[in-house]
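User: Before I run my own analysis I want an independent prediction to cross-check against. Here's the chain; please return only the structure tokens and, at the end, one sentence I can use as a sanity check.
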Amino acid sequence: MRFEKNIYMTLKSILISLCIICLNFNSYSQKKESPYETDLVKDGIWITTGVGLNVVGVLLIQDKPSLSQQDLNALSKDDIWGIDRWAAGNYSEKANSASYIPMFTSFALPLALLINENERSHAGQISVLFVESMATTGALFTITAALVEKSRPLVYNTSIPDEERMDNDEQRSFFAGHTAATAAATFFAAKVFNDFNPDSPWRPVVWGVAAAIPATVGYLRIQSGKHFLTDNIVGLAVGAASGILIPEIHKKKNKNVEIYPTMGFNLRGENVNSQGIGISYQF
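Assistant: Structure tokens:
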């Protein structure tokens, strides 16, 4: 299994463990009022379903076919959208390695929230919401990457051996998972800080940092030849949406709104045939 796949499997394991720890910690740490409301059953179902969809997505990615020699020979930069064409052929192992630094750093940003006493007293609750945000982002990424056929920019670089260019791991350019995961973490941290500190003068700075870090990751992913510009734009949007919406729908004022992951099966109940997000509003 390739390095990136191992990373996502490891992150999922960490998130599951963190969720279990935080659910227990939450019962001992409610000292000040939180703007959020969590429910053991509902949030447990959300996280379990999100992790399950991640597993489904990873399995689908593993089974994704490699590019044939005929298809490789037929590739042309002229067939790429103009907004992306300039990145076709990019390749840099240095940029690829560098992109992991801000990504992994972003996962620690929610911990910075614990500096403030109010957020620290709700560390368990915040951690559960963070797990939900990351699990949702991961599910959307893995399933999309598995189902959408799009070669990475480096596949258009003829100086790279054909075996590497045809590898199935290089055929999932859409959308950018590193950028999405980073945006989910940074925008989640900004959203929680904003909700706990609505009058803080630091809010513009926090939101600016939240946008700058995934943008940096996106730039490095383009330079490395792993993703096109549009892949990163969508990845940043998906991650930011998860990071912002998960806390928002848990706010106490939003009791009538529910957003939840869904999973469907065929009539025989053997294979998953649909995944997505369900939204309900109670009048």
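Sanity check: The longest strand covers residues 272-281.
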